[in-house]
Amino acid sequence: MYLGLLDYFLGHCPNPSLTDVWKEPGGLTRKIPVWQCHNHRDQGGGCCCSKNGKGGSSLSSKVVVTFCVLGAVPTYDELLTKLRTEVDKTSCATEQELITACSEADAVIALGIRITPGYVFSTRVIENLHKCRLIALTGIGYDNVDIAAATEKGICVANNPYYCPEEVSAHAMALILACARKLYQLVPDIKSGKWTTQADYLSALNPLHRLSGQTLGLIGFGNMARTLVPKALAFGFRIIA
Questions:
Q1: SS3 call for 65
Q2: Are strands 29-33 and 36-37 parallel, antiparallel or unpaired?
Q3: pTM of the model
Q4: What is the mean pLDDT of residues 19-34?
Q5: 121 in helix, strand or coil?
Q6: Does residue 9 or residue 66 have the better pLDDT?
């Protein structure tokens, strides 16, 4: 999914594939946009390259990965090699580090969350991106990018709207179960050896209700919530959203 979008904005490919197949809970499948350009999605505009006039066929381009932590996050080596472009991998924690790393980048791969207070593509950072055509965010969120400033600069900001729904929904279900079965309250007691009688155990659990028949309320019903629903139904929850 990175390859088509990066190839397009670096001028290597005129017709990228920006769709993928998404499997809905229950087995249904549909084609979805893997990436969304939030500048032009909001404004109804067209191709970013046609707007900013920076498209071209030169292969002397540079991509900067701004959150490279070896062994902890993907390095995209195989994908980036296919782009035939210079790749710079770094870890940025401040606005100045982002400016230093990305000022001459043609494209930036970034996180959509603030891993540190200074990891933000602010107006100041974007004003210092002299060649950038694309800020590609690896996840769903794009809160740490000044969309208006990027639009003014002619930079496309794209996210990955279908990133890890199975993992997030599974983790949410695990936390629901932990809360419902009072694991957070009980584990410290187990470690400290607090329970000496069955009365102590029953007192710590009171009240404890079976999951089946309880109501799970979902605020919003996006991809994560929809992926969570079949997991919750398997435990007998009644779902409202």
A1: strand
A2: unpaired
A3: 0.68
A4: 48
A5: strand
A6: 66
